[in-house]
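Reproducibility note. Readers wishing to regenerate the assembly model reported in the main text can use the exact inputs given here. Chain order matters: entities are listed in the order in which they were concatenated for prediction.
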Amino acid sequence: MRTLWRLAAIGVSAFFGIVSARGIEVGEKRSGFDFMTPETQALQADDISNPGMLWVLQGEQLWQEPEGRANVACSGCHGDASRTMSGVAVRYPVFDEATGRPIDLAGRINACRTERQQAEPLAPESDALLALTTYVTHQSRGMPVTPANDPRLAPFRENGRRLFQSRIGQLDLSCASCHDDNWGKRLGGSAIPQAHPTGYPLYRLEWQMVGSLQRRLRNCMIGVRAEPFAFGAPEFVDLELYLAERARGLPVETPAVRP
Amino acid sequence: MRENPIRVDETMGALGALVGRRQFLRTGMTGLLVISLPRWAVARPSLDEAIRTFTGGAAVLDGRVRLDLPPLVENGNAVGITVAAESPMTTDDHVRRIAIFNEKNPEANVVVFHLGPRSGRATVSTRIRLATSQVVVAVAEMSDGSFWSSRASAIVTLAACIEDLL
Amino acid sequence: MARALVNVPKEAKQGETVEIRAMIAHPMETGYRVGPNGINIPRDIIRRFACTYNGEEVFRADLHPAVSANPFFAFTLVALASGTIEFTWTDDAGATQTASAMITVS
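Running the prediction on these inputs yields the following structure tokens for the assembly.
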């Protein structure tokens, strides 16, 4: 009897697999890790060989360095990051009262720098900003992505969804064209993953360094021959918000390694 | 001048003034193609020449060294390799050096490891760059002066999407 | 301070062969890449990596641009006496960065 049910279940799922090619079905959510070769997976899995850990190390050092006119370190207010930052990154982006908009973790770190430390903001993709963001996110490694349940974020998340599904560029492709409709297939020699941002900032072999989710989004926009948004653009934060909701429940991997 | 379209170098500007627009475009395109051939494309020594420089011309035998390289590489910027030579690694009988060479990168040399009896084992892992699909060779020099080699090849797939430069 | 990660076993038995791993943050700029301005990015690589054990060199690597960014090496050595294992990375300009670890041999 149990076998019969199982057969029926396989039949039903196979049927739905054919009729609903769109989107990622429940239970099919998979990290980009699963689409990599065993060699690249091994690179991420072992902290001694994962080059992203060099940015974690740098972030740990920067966390304790006093900065700005306030001459205060991150640790001066937040103490031991392994306790105070554990589980923080899984909620981001969150609603920022000051601007009335969502803010991502890198944005929060820079806001902290300018407001609390009274220092100059760190440049996008600078080693220091990536290192601090990687270090803070790393404190949540293994925890499920759990976006903030804040109704004020809803319109921004909706805009992120709209951007994800809008066709852009000379190739007239949306994010969804590849990552909802064709994940698991190949584009040239590369596997198309589901585009879950669970490992950012991550070490990309193509970059030969750690980079942010926004850098990856810019690469994708250039890939479809669209004019990319600037680093820090509100559209990017809205997209990050939608992507976090879409990845809900997947474990944080930072620092991940990707090809 | 018109009969000599493949004329490249700094005189291109003067050439443009002498010939017609279409002729110049064609000449210019050919010129660019020639100019854009990277210097190393003609300058680098072959795989065999590079190995000969390392061995000083001594014979290289097959065996006693093993090179592990993944056959299919997702990104040529970081290819994990492990090289292991068979040796008791004693004062009298050990591996002195292991060198890695490639066939098609801009430079043939990759890395040279210096080992000795204090190494315990002649096994080393590292990560290398492979510009394209090609052959990689490991050559081990033993303490008796003999050379042994192993070769492996990898297919390197290229990223599907183009990138901007930071 | 070097941005380097080294892995040395804390303890080992006399005569045991132990695995050492070392990685340093470095772009290993090949000199063959072209920057956004169309000009080649100048070469800047780690040229030599050496490991000493109580002052004696036990492993060395001569690097060329084909070694990946953030160079990583795993190798072995024989634990003979308690002491310091030191790592030195030397770049094209001759500047060095170091890291070290202690090993207790019983």
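We highlight two features of this model. The longest helix of chain B spans residues 21-36. The first strand of chain B starts at residue 60 and ends at 62.
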